[in-house]
Amino acid sequence: MTMNHSAEARPPIRFRGRSFMATVLAPLPPVAEWLADLDALCQRAPAFFNGRPTILDLTGLSLTREDLDELLAELRARRIPVHGIEGAPPGMSGDGLPPSLSGGRPIGEVAMPDAPAPEPEPAARTVPSRSLILDVPVRSGQTILHLDGDVIVLGAVASGAEVIAGGSIHIYGVLRGRAVAGASGDPAARIWCRRFEPELVAIDGLYRAADDLDASFHGQPVEVRLVDDALRLTALDASR
């Protein structure tokens, strides 16, 4: 009798848990005014939702299925794909809707960019950018958002943390989380770090995840900049 040993040689199925940081959108009534506020945010920070998993929290809203379909269409029109829905009314799931989620652990609110200041007179248009200096490490689950200039981190950026800057990002420790520079539309922004182990880096909306980065730079002092619509990594001389 011939026996097929292929099933015995096949490794068992393995299940792994993995956590991802997501942005939760919680609309407030009237939804039309909330969408107008969302438009104002997107105008101030066009790249804010780029590469971010987004969850729609419907807790406290009284929506029909037609209302929900319209809201999802409005978000898609703004290039904000919804990856899951939390707090949906009973029975409102499936049928082409994003999956229903529950049990998420909140990590605090993400700071929104300030409204733009009134435009100065032509003679005073040049306004120096302001740098944000962080004396402490950026912990897992934290999002640092500063669109008015550079962000300088004197410590490390942990895995699961995110730093978003309108200008450049300087990290004097290890980068294990996400670094998003030039988020206000600055292609000349750069990322510098003493030890390069990121989950994701981005400049002016162009993103590269860890799996797409040259492994030879891992753990090294690195500069990231945008050259000809591509992210270029350069090893830095740590002895200088």
Task: Fill in the keyword field for this structure.
single chain, 240 residues, alpha/beta, Alpha-Beta Plaits, 2 domains, six-stranded mixed beta sheet, five-stranded mixed beta sheet, 3 helices, 26% strand
Task: Offer a quick outline of the entry.
The protein folds into two domains: 23-101, Alpha-Beta Plaits; 129-235, Pectate Lyase C-like, CATH 2.160.20. Helices cover 13% and strands 26% of the residues. It is built from three helices and 15 strands.
Q: Which strand order does the major sheet show?
A: 5-7-9-11-14-15
Any idea of the CATH class of the largest domain? Mainly Beta
Q: Roughly what percent helix? A: 10-25%
Global mean pLDDT: 80
From the N-terminal CA to the C-terminal CA, the straight-line distance is 71 Å
Low-confidence stretches: 115-128
The general outline is globular
Strand content: 25-35%
The CATH topology of the largest domain is what?
Pectate Lyase C-like
Main pleated-sheet profile:
6 strands, mixed
Number of strands: 15
Our Rg estimate from Cα atoms comes to 22 Å
SS element count, helices: 3
What structural class do the secondary elements suggest?
alpha/beta
Sketch the topology as an H/E string, one letter per element: HEHEHEEEEEEEEEEEEE
CATH architecture of the largest domain: 3 Solenoid
**Number of domains as seen in the coordinates:** 2
Protein name: Probable septum site-determining protein MinC
Biased composition (Low complexity): 89-104
Subunit structure: Interacts with MinD and FtsZ.
Domain Septum formation inhibitor MinC N-terminal: 13-79
